[in-house]
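Give me a protein, keeping tokens residue-aligned:
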Amino acid sequence: MAEMSVASIQEHFGELTDPRRREPTYPLMDMVVMTVCAVICGADDFVAIAKFARSKQEWFGKFLDLSHGIPSHDRFNAVIGMLKPAEFEKCLLSWITSLHENTDGQVIANDGKQVHTPTDEGGRSCGRGS
């Protein structure tokens, strides 16, 4: 059996350069983990990311340093906005690749819905409007 690659967000994003000059209040990795989780769950702006993180604070607190609480949407915007896009992309692609390898290419539905092929057993289209 092939060895599984590490699919930890923290492992794959560990090489991100923290763009902040002063001692940060919120660890960069914690902000990245909260942001990635929020976006996967449908957050599409920094207000939604902060709201998601606050709603999952107890869960995040099990493995992140939340001694200063959850960052505000403005703080998420400022810090995530300062990251080098190419560096972030490299980390993201590395993480997604490890997920793909660990699941043997199978799609993981995170919305509770079953994944369908273009047509179901009856030959009907499963596309929009059907």
